[in-house]
Known about the structure:
The complex is a heterodimer. By secondary structure, chain A is α+β, with helices and mostly antiparallel strands.
Amino acid sequence: MASKYINVNLKVWRQKNANTKGKMETYKLDNVSTDSSFLEMMDQLNEQLINERQEPIAFDHDCREGICGMCSLYINGRAHGPDNAVTTCQLHMRKFDDGATIYIEPWRSKAFPVIKDLVVDRSAFDRIQQAGGFVSVNTSGNTIDANATPIPKADADKAFEAAACIGCGACVASCKNSSAMLFVGAKVSQYALLPQGKVEATNRVLNMVRQMEEEGFGNCTNTGACEVECPKGISLENIARMNREFMKAMITAE
Amino acid sequence: MSTLDSKIPEGHISQKWTDYKDHLKLVAPNNRPKIDIIVVGTGLAGSSAAASLGEMGYNVKAFCFQDSPRRAHSIAAQGGINAAKNYQNDGDSIFRLFYDTIKGGDYRAREANVHRLAEVSGNIIDQCVAQGVPFAREYGGLLDNRSFGGTQVQRTFYAAGQTGQQLLLGAYSALSRQIGLGRVKMYNRHEMLDIVKVDGKARGIIARNLVTGEIERHSAHAVVLASGGYGNVYFLSTNAMGSNVTAAWKAHKQGAYFANPCYVQIHPTCIPVHGTNQAKLTLMSESLRNSGRIWVPKKKEDAEAIRAGKLKPTELAEDERDYYLERKYPAFGNLVPRDVASRAAKEVCDEGRGIESNDTNEGVYLDFSTEIQTKGRQAAYAKGNHNPTPEEVTALGKQWLEEKYGNLFTMYQKITDENPYETPMKIYPAVHYTMGGVWVDYNLQSTIPGCFVTGEANFSDHGANRLGASALMQGLADGYFVLPYTLSNYLADEIRTGKISTDLPEFNEAETRVKELINTFLANNGTKSVDYFHKKLGLIMWNKVGMGRNEKGLNEAIVELAELKAEFNKDVYVPGSADELNPQLEKALRVADLIELGQLMAMDALQRNESCGGHFREEYQDAEGETLRDDQNFSFVGAWEYKGDNINDEVLHKEELKYEFIKIAARNYK
């Protein structure tokens, strides 16, 4: 890999906490390796700010390999920035030109309030999961043998593709309505496709959708921006499946 | 001088756990709500424990520093989880999984614990399938398996290259159910900063709310630490940025012995380092060694030409390549255990045959071209095409690879900007997992009564080297199937204790300790950032307590680390304040503990005058460069007792390892 070095201008959202107003600040950062990840560039900026005795920028991150779902930046108007099927931590600086101006904002959604700078509160997703995103089986170990119930490979594969969601919230951030339907649809689908999930399917979809609405997420108007920006390529089919499950549940629920 | 009682039950190895479990004390369902349990960490070990204990009816409080329990670093495990199901009919059994794990750990793990792990391994798969974990399946609808290093059977269950994610989301769903039912109270964005002991027993923790900065007291009848490993002591590792040793280290300072800190796993297949601003290393799953062949050029000149960009790896003729693992270890080939594969990579790079054009030239190839041909031909035949063209074979072979490892190949391409379907991957060993950890007995209880430690945070199951796909197994075994029994046995004596007050003087003292530490850092006003020290720590550890260790280097490291600690305390600059979200402060508190631990790791490596598993002392190797154990003198677990601020004062206790059911032998993968 031949490394190149570029200089960038950064416009970054700064906000002290949830109760104060934020604004964009401008920073100049030189000598950024094109082999650096976007977050390594942010580390470099923070190191510069610390050395200048300015307050470093708070941003969420952890695994830095695209799987924990903690990183969350809105870069140049796109969730996770200008590359497809990646999280911000997997975005690399080779995607930017020397001298580029880069806008960095937090996820924007009423249901994801800003905590500080680029850090938002996504606990609404946890609460949706708590409302029904599980199979009610005790962890006793006394279940049936794992191979006792064959599952068609196609169903297992589709369930896995839905379960690959990392819960980052890019779908919500990309949606003009701040809808969480892709996230909820993926979870509902994973279980709806598997025999183990079918027993509680009716209550699950009703409870998860109810919680989603209580959290203040908007509705789905079939724009499809969520699917485009999803770093894990979660398909819109999952929303359709959730809608079918929901309709079915509305008719059959007691 | 040993004061360590491992509490291993009597009886034949295959009956110990069953008999022991049958005689443990129980807590009746009506008494469980009177008992509080704290679980720190929500990876596989923590989530599974919190969910199981909540389900049983205990009052559970669970803590994680991430914004959601689902983000703990178990999520990043790629390749799979082992279980002795023998679904593939290749002669697997509980005994074989037990034997492979002991041998893989280079005969430095505790027999009874490992056998228990193998016994419950099958239940884990049953449990996860029942929870809706979408494991990979074959066309007949049954579960698929693959091979991992250090075994000659296919016992690894997987979900593409995202097995850890699927298992953690399974445990997270079980945990979420309990949170929804109100049986577990979840504290996201909270970090444990001290453990509180009352009358010698663990009775609570001090935690910092990372959003508000508030220092909170939480009391309980028992504390479970499931806080993961300490690979971040090397700065660069495959661990998450936030992974840290603080919970375990604070317990150590309050009396929990720390065992085998020098046992670190350096994983052979990671993406090589690109530059000085790099913050973390990325693993390429061991499962890729099922399909990839590892090689470097035979001649130094060819390696130089490759590094200079004058020669492409694909242009190098077959007989100019050294498939060094296949050459040295024909019986296991590319699937030797991790420590063996890592050392072999270091050896060929030390000879000047590394292929990466970075500062160190360290890198080897992981090549999929043979597999593309083999699988492509098979796929063509399966479609009834018995005379496929070379193009058809290649296309079908790539398609097969994509199905098996697609996400890993994409990840590699995003990071390196190279296409691994067309050119071999470049890989090099990196710090990945720590076998050492808090010492625990058979009950998973530390030397602090009431403080239990599970998963990577304890030391118990992997000896001096962990086999691939066994970390997930251990985390879930501890949380789902071991702790619920052994912790209940301890809690049976607590049903009359009543609520533990957080107004006790012990809570005051612990809270004061934490607040003083925080204030010291914030008022320090030094000249250098936390990362400056963390990187320096990492370099000392990698160079002197890394893949190859020797007496001179270790002695130097011990001195340098003590100096680094003093310099850090004097000169670190931590911006911001205590009462807000302050990632730099969080980091400073973690790095302070990592520096101290680093020194203990060097001391442990120095006292262990032998090579075993991941601990390679250059003085102790055979004529072929393999590890040379000294079973006469070092067949023990080294557990360190904290003796105050000077780490050099720590005292070593030895738990002798007795092998009753396995014949101890030199490890041989040839």
